[in-house]
User: Which sequence fits this backbone?
């Protein structure tokens, strides 16, 4: 995580949608294995849209 965002955190928690009655909570765990970033995302959410994210 430090390489991409300057943080020592390995897990991020994202919460949104409470204000409009579509509560979602997602935990993102970032680790490194064999020199590659491994990203695991778990949680609950209501589908809204898809996006593609490309990291350098």
Assistant:
């Amino acid at each position: 995580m430090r390489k991409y965002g300057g943080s020592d955190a390995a897990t991020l928690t994202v919460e949104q949608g409470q204000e409009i009655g579509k509560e979602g909570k997602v935990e993102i765990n970032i680790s490194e294995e064999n020199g590659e970033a491994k990203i695991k995302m778990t949680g609950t959410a209501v589908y809204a849209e898809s996006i593609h994210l490309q990291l350098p």
User: Anything to note?
Assistant: Residues 39 and 52 are 14 Å apart (CA to CA). Strands lie at 11-16, 24-33, 36-44. The first strand starts at residue 11 and ends at 16.
